[in-house]
Amino acid sequence: MVSPAEIPAVNIADLPADGVLLDVREDDEWQAGHAPKAVHIPLGELPSRVGELADLPEGPVYVVCRSGGRSARATAWLNASGWDAVNVSGGMKSWDAEGREVVSESGGEPEIL
Q: Where is the Rhodanese domain positioned along the sequence (predicted)?
């Protein structure tokens, strides 16, 4: 088991502008509000869909969820599977608090669930 201190992490303010963002939240959370250019693969589907990451640009994959717990687990699993992954500390709650853009798939006002 990987301890939380061993999981690479980055704060929202330090995310590279061109970084690849992987959102591992559930479909209803994604529909309500997400980062505009994020890729969505729910945590439970990640093992069966991890191959989709091969189509993304080179470099680390920045993994985000609501507050950082699920994304930390996904980051640990991805790194153990040979990927270069970094957990986004504070998740989408911090993303929203930092005033970063959030879009909705529902057409309504975006919100972070």
A: 15-104
